[in-house]
User: Which sequence fits this backbone?
């Protein structure tokens, strides 16, 4: 291995080290409960992994209990985990290690899964009870082929804007061609340009 080259991470390195290094919030001492990712976008049938970790020195933290809440499109807040686990019919899987972080895998996503997922940690820190909420994960589940997008945390989708722009461009072109045809008729000049404009404008309305 040449000088200056980085050595690869050992295979046994804990997977959350990569998340700690890539997420700027882990370097913020004011943020005590970290969630990752922040704004995932998925299609129906996909899955998402929700990660929540304590941003405190592990020797200070003894025991932790994690509770997840979801804020729906109408702003209602309800407990998502652990009380509602059975309502997801096996779509929700939990993984936890050491009591300092938790990951949830939510599979077979549906449109109504859109919302902001909040992780709350209740721990014993320095022999004292402590609790804090995470920064939230705003999940958007959208069917871009049909244009169906829920209002769980996003504005109009980019696809809808593309369709709107295409329609506006077609209408503007049609108006321009219609004006051109009208001018040609007034001048009584039956040129090839006139015939082409008429045919192209009619084709836009078909």
Assistant:
């Amino acid at each position: 291995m040449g000088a200056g080259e980085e050595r690869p991470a050992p295979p046994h390195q804990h997977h959350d080290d990569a998340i700690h290094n890539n997420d700027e919030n882990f370097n913020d001492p004011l943020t005590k409960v970290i969630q990752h990712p922040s704004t995932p976008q998925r299609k129906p049938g996909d899955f998402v992994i929700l990660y929540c970790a304590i941003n405190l020195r592990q020797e200070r933290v003894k025991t932790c209990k994690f509770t997840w809440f979801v804020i729906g499109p109408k702003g209602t807040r309800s407990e998502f985990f652990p009380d509602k686990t059975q309502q997801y019919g096996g779509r929700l899987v939990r993984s936890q290690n050491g009591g300092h972080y938790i990951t949830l895998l939510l599979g077979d996503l549906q449109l109504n899964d859109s919302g902001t997922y909040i992780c709350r940690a209740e721990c014993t820190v320095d022999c004292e009870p402590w609790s804090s909420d995470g920064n939230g994960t705003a999940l958007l589940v959208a069917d871009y082929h049909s244009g169906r997008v829920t209002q769980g945390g996003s504005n109009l989708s980019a696809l809808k804007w593309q369709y709107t722009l295409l329609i506006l461009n077609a209408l503007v072109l049609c108006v321009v061609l219609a004006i051109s045809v009208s001018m040609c008729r007034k001048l009584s000049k039956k040129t090839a340009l006139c015939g082409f404009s008429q045919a192209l404008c009619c084709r836009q309305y078909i």
Remarks:
- The two ends are 67 Å apart (CA to CA).
- Residues 13 and 19 are 12 Å apart (CA to CA).
- The chain has two domains: 16-151, 160-205.
